[in-house]
Design goal:
Two copies of one chain form a homodimer.
Chain A (H helix, E strand, L loop, with lengths): L3 E3 L2 H8 L4 E8 L2 E12 L2 E6 L4 H5 L3 E11 L4 E13 L3 H10 L11 E5 L3 E7 L16
Antiparallel strand pairs in A: 1-8, 2-3, 2-5, 3-4, 4-7, 5-6, 6-7, 6-8
Chain lengths: ~140, ~140
Amino acid sequence: MAELRNLSRSECEALLRRGEVGRVALATPTGPHIVPVNYTVSRGDVVVATAPYSVLGSSGRDTLLAFEVDHVEHAQQRGWSVVVRGRAEMVEDPEEVRTLGRLLPRPWASGTRTLYLRIPLDEVSGRRLGGGWDLEATMPQRPTT
Amino acid sequence: MAELRNLSRSECEALLRRGEVGRVALATPTGPHIVPVNYTVSRGDVVVATAPYSVLGSSGRDTLLAFEVDHVEHAQQRGWSVVVRGRAEMVEDPEEVRTLGRLLPRPWASGTRTLYLRIPLDEVSGRRLGGGWDLEATMPQRPTT
């Protein structure tokens, strides 16, 4: 059985900055939901892109959300996962919205309009499975704001 | 921008049967949470492995859960995601527990004891991003019960 250990806050933040796709868990009137999202790290927070009338756009503002990004290599029995939890707010600053429009791909959000939700790193946790390898080497570096 | 389209129920089920790692979203007393899990398909339901005293083991029984599995290829701008939602119950049948113990890896569940949660496919949805490629070829086939 591969070793499972907790990641430090700085390890978690370094991995967060390298990802592009994660998943958001949210409470909805019909129970928990989970949706894949494109994201980036902007001004120190996770920012996810969604459509205004999606499940996330409708039920994910001004409420607690959980966000997860991971990388798993089945054959090598190794991987890592980082989870962020915090109260999400819509990005309102026009300058930041313009920057996000350039930086943040949003293929998982259908429709032509984009809503950006900011999830502060109120709670950050991470785990890695398997030792002796460079976590960050598993993800391509991407520009962040 | 790559094409985003919905998957049929049978496409979703075929993809579910090939995965090994997914994520579960659940409601907890402190808000939504999301945890990576090893899973299999057993008797037509998604069954995830967790530890009895984990967040999922504590707050994930006899309640609504959402489960997601996906495969994303950044460079090709293509991928798919399948989401299952249903009321989870602990697997109680001793024979099924023994079978799951043989079939289901559980490296993401720490500790020595395993709790199996069954999530019925009450609601199944999926989306694919990008066309012209074989979705199932993205995952290795694995045995299921």
